[in-house]
Input
Amino acid sequence: MRNHLILGFVLVSCLTFAQSSSVDRDWYNADVVQDKVAGISVTRSYETLLEGRTAKPVIVAVIDSGVEISHEDLRDVIWVNIDEIPNNGIDDDNNGYIDDVHGWSFIGGAEGDVEHDNLEFTRVYKSYYDRFSKKSASEITSAEKKDYARYLELEKQYKKRVDDAKNEYEEMVQIRDFFYLCKSFFSQVYGDVTLTKEMVDSFEPTDDMTTAMQKFMQYAIDNDFDSMLDEFVQDAEGNVLYSYNLNFDSRKVVGDNPNDVNERFYGSANVTGPAAEHGTHVAGIIGAVRNNGLGINGVAAPVLIMPIRAVPKGDERDKDVANAIRYAVDNGAKVINMSFGKSYSPDKTTVDAAVKYAESKGVLMVHAAGNSSHNNDKSNNFPNPVDEITREQCTTWIEVGASGTDVNALAAPFTNYGKRSVDVFAPGVDILSTYTSGDYKSQSGTSMAAPVVSGMAALIMAYYPELSAKDVREIIVNSYTDYGKKKTPLPQSGGKKTKMVKFKKLSRTGGVVNVYNAIKMADTYRRTKGVGISE
Output
């Protein structure tokens, strides 16, 4: 049987998003100079530069897993389609979507909602599997040889991924079981009370096993396993049951033709869906109501959140992403947050066309760089701002990596990076935000860093409506706090040895976004450029 002490510390690599909860809950709104933490000066900006000024609400589309629109800290900032009469079964505004009062779901239908789906890798592999799995090598024609070789390559990867997913699930189950064993042990020591870090710290182990239990529970309490561990086990199980399951069909409930990338009008008005945890967290970072005495303060005020469901547990489909972008643009969003990504994009040209459409309409798109500790200059992370055919770069796109609280170790250990492919970093470690069932939770990831930037963009647009999306992008990527010369541990995957690099090597800017600097720069733009710097 595996040593429990070793098993416990496997969590460092398995629980990518679990970070220390010892930092201030509102740290990302703080100021690096005044508060000695690598925040982005949101609070300082409201209390000084924006005090007493009026602003116009900006619509931010959240393309994600869904948003709990009834949440106490979000319900007052959820976008309302005033041209649509609720629940009458009629497309009152003639936009092609019936009863889209608060947004739309491209992964739902009359028969239900998609919660799980394959990874895109699985869908790509399945297309080859269906062609070649029943053929022998001698039956392959000369015209098929290249595709057959690709099939064999993907087959090896698929088998390894399936084995890894099964092992990870088994490992997570063991970790969960050991967690509950430890909880039971400490309840016998201290009684049926809430176990605290102080109680565990004061415990005196008597042997190797109780030493392991103490160390494990210290880590578990720091990382809030009570609220997160079961969820991680469910996610690991989902990888086995759905992500790599060649026979799983998620789309029957939607009622569309998933292979028709030109199909536009399908889905449902259920913008919450069955698994809105991720999207709700993202939405709160952007625009949870400020200073209402509840929960948290979002970055942007005033703001309206437009929920668009397109991201299941698994990988989003290119068709849905493209349609979500077009829906957002056509219904008035000025910023689109995209806290998702994948390594394959078989219909990238469809997404590229939607991105180009958003760009032509002056909409800013903010995308998370990913959580695999990879260099995006050398690996794929889709969607991206580079048109596959023309190789042109979208001028209203910001790619965001995740930073932490410590100015001497800025890059989050999980974040993707890239000197050419990542524009700037933003806080993405231990971010407290809204959660389902009216709750609040801390989570980490570039999924949290992107909405920090989306909220920042909406804030600038709200107070400076004369500035274009190109202006706002230029302001954000040029008003950062410059940490370029500071060294940070290079994010490493696969247990590789950590090395120190200059922060400037991880993005185009070598900086972390800063709202205070951006507001001052926006003032300059308005005074010197009038209606903005872009046509």
